[in-house]
Design goal:
The chain has a 3-stranded antiparallel beta sheet with strand order 1-3-2. By secondary structure, it is mainly alpha-helical. It folds into 2 domains: 66 residues, Orthogonal Bundle (Arc Repressor Mutant, subunit A), CATH 1.10.10.10; 141 residues, GntR ligand-binding domain-like (Four Helix Bundle (Hemerythrin (Met), subunit A)). The protein has 10 helices and 3 strands. Helix 1 crosses helix 3 and helix 4 runs antiparallel to helix 7. Pfam families: FCD, GntR. GO terms for molecular function: DNA binding; DNA-binding transcription factor activity. It comes from Amycolatopsis vastitatis. This is GntR family transcriptional regulator.
């Protein structure tokens, strides 16, 4: 047979592409918590064999976005209020350390970080006043992810990205937890102001208050 102009297919890249698509469907709310996923149906819809789909699902199980239950199948992870409390505690711990690193960084790094965070804060108010709550959640997560990224620690960033993914799993629940518009803006602005003034104590207070408010809202909404 005549040689064709073909490129080798990387099995891992196929499963990675499938995993990325399923991940996006989970994080944007298309796939809901506890919703089952069918390996055969996904393979049929994508026009691929079940092998790379199985690999993709296993990758997402390892990330914590899916859970495999013996004799039942694979489901989107259902995050409980207790899970969210643990996730936020871990996020706060990592962000506190990242804030310390940013405050100790060179002036240009700190100034750039402050500008980036301020730009995000400036978008939160209009989004919330317009009732675009999903955008508010995304901006909030982007704010905190940007703070962590500014630390320059790639391992902390990788650990934090998992926590952000787990937070996004419960995006519908997160809407109910969010404080009032004024409170949300004030808390984020306080974090930015503390960084801008290189005030480590003020940064710690602002971060602690922000997470305390979130966890208090969580406890209040889920109280019997």
């Amino acid at each position: 047979m005549k040689n064709l102009n073909l490129q080798a297919i990387d099995y891992q890249s196929v499963s990675g592409t499938i995993a990325a698509q399923i991940r996006n469907n989970i994080l944007d709310g298309t796939l809901q918590p506890a919703q089952p996923l069918s390996e055969s149906e996904i393979a049929k819809q994508l026009g691929v064999s079940r092998g790379p789909v199985r690999e993709a699902l296993q990758r997402l199980v390892q990330e914590g976005l899916l859970v495999r239950i013996p004799n039942r199948g694979v489901f989107v992870t259902d995050i409980t209020p207790e899970d969210i409390a643990e996730i936020y505690e871990a996020r706060q711990t990592l962000e506190a350390r990242c804030g310390e690193k940013v405050l100790a960084a060179a002036d240009d790094v700190l100034d750039r970080t402050v500008r980036e965070l301020q730009a995000i804060v400036d978008e939160i108010g209009p989004a919330e006043r317009s009732g675009r709550w999903r955008e508010v959640v995304e901006l909030d997560l982007h704010f905190h992810s940007s703070l962590v990224a500014a630390s320059g620690n790639s391992r902390i960033q990788r650990a934090y990205s998992t926590l952000i993914a787990e937070s996004s799993l419960s995006i519908n629940r997160l809407e109910r937890w969010y404080p009032s518009e004024d409170s949300l803006l004030q808390e984020h602005q306080a974090i930015v102001d503390a960084l801008a003034s290189r005030d480590a104590a003020a940064f710690t207070r602002a971060l602690d208050l922000h997470y305390l408010q979130t966890l208090t809202e969580n406890a209040g909404h889920d109280r019997p």
